[in-house]
Amino acid sequence: MKTAVFLSLLALLATVAGPLQAVPPGLTLDFLNDDAGDVTFSGTTHADADLRCANCHLSIFDVSRSARISRADHRSDQFCFGCHDGETAFAARGNCDSCHQDDW
C-alpha cells in the first residue's frame, strides 16, 4: 500500500514539475517601461539554463506580475542582478541594451 501511494505521488510530482518552468519555452513576458525601454523576459533562454519558477520566485521576486525594478536596484544584487552579474549570467550593469529595447 505504501509503495502504491509513493508511486502515485511520484507520478503526480513528475506531471506537475514540467509545467513549472519560469516562463515556458517559446513564450516571453514583456515588462513595459516608459523611462528606460521595455524589457522582454525569454522563457526559452531561462528554460535552456534549466531554471524553474522557484529559482527566482519567492527568493528573489514575489510571485507577481507587477514587479517594479528601480534604477537603484540596478546597483544591487537583488532581482535580475543576483544572477546577471557577469559570472552566473551575462552582466546587466553597463549592458543596458542586453535587456532594454531602448537605450537609457
From TrEMBL:
Q: Does the keyword Cell inner membrane apply?
A: no
Its signal peptide is: 1-22
Alphabetically sorted, this entry's keywords are: Signal
Q: Which residues form the Cytochrome c7-like domain?
A: 39-101
Q: Which InterPro entries match?
A: Cyt_c7-like (IPR029467), Multihaem_cyt_sf (IPR036280), Nanowire_3heme (IPR026352)
> What's a Pfam family this protein contains?
Cytochrome_C7
Gene3D superfamilies, alphabetically?
Answer: Cytochrome C3
Coiled-coil residues: none
Q: What is this protein called?
A: Cytochrome c7-like domain-containing protein
User: Which species is this record about?
Assistant: Thioalkalivibrio nitratireducens (strain DSM 14787 / UNIQEM 213 / ALEN2)
